[in-house]
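Example 3.2
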Amino acid sequence: MDEEAQQIAEIKNKLATVKQNIAAACVRSGRELSSVRLLPVTKTVPAERLRLAYAAGCHEMGENKIQEAREKSETLKDLNIKWAIIGHLQTNKAKYLARFANEFQALDSLKVAAELDKRLQIEGRSMDVYVQVNSSGEASKFGLAPDDVRTFVDQLPNYSSLRIKGLMTLAIFSTDHDRVRECFIKMRNIRDMLRQEAPAGLSFEELSMGMSGDYELAIEEGATIVRVGQAIFGKRPLPDSHYWPGVG
């Protein structure tokens, strides 16, 4: 087996393990496997390796930084990859996001909503968007405070190019499963409230929560999207705090 084939096989094996764990979490929580989507997180993974990951079955990829995502989308434009931006977005970068991304999972500002909506209209397209909530209450993390979500959501019908699909969060980074689970339960409760009370035309069916260290807990508490990177691609060269403030 040549080196490329070996790397593809290795990614396939890790993907299979993650999918087995997702299936087991679904069984434990009485959920259908089809109700959970796996989003491979590819930040810091070089484009050449992502080509192999695509061959291994990763056709959606989540990136934290818009510049890195742009460069990879250009390099890999011959592949039919769906790109999700899962990190904080500065207003001046919205124009880039509007051009190539399929999904934005970190909306927590009306300024960004307005700019992204404007840029999407210029591009003649719309985009799936998730509202980011700071479920752990850590000052270093982005996302809306849980108590501010309802007021924020009431403004979103003003931005017709944003297809609101649900909520996203980063749970507290802790070995205490009860503390992590609390974040996920809080998110499920907010989602359930919004299903009843959000303005017409907005959907809150989706809950994007859970990463490599806690995605099984997240599924048990209702996650419909899990964002898994290191369990598929191995450890990153820098700690998660470099990519996500507040994550050790």
